[in-house]
Design a protein that fits this description.
By secondary structure, this protein is mainly alpha-helical. The protein is built from two helices and no strands. The N and C termini lie close together (12 Å).
Length: 68
């Protein structure tokens, strides 16, 4: 199965969503915060973190990947 090619913006948004889901899971697990009380929207912090990750992938020559 081939992965669909994402734009940089789509990759940043996807990573931000994953980052936020991880934060929600950790808050629930580690601090006992009910998931329903957490804001499900991606935060500026999540976007900043994902921008940093994509920037590092670019620096390492891993993004963008080879053409499909």
């Amino acid at each position: 199965m081939m992965a669909a090619k994402l734009s940089r913006e789509e990759l940043v948004a996807r990573l931000a969503e994953i980052s936020h889901r991880t934060w929600m899971r950790q808050k629930e697990r580690d601090q006992g915060v009910p998931r329903v009380s957490l804001d499900p929207a991606v935060s500026p912090h999540d976007l900043e973190r994902s921008e940093d990750i994509v920037h590092e992938l670019e620096r390492l020559g891993l993004w963008p990947g080879p053409p499909l």
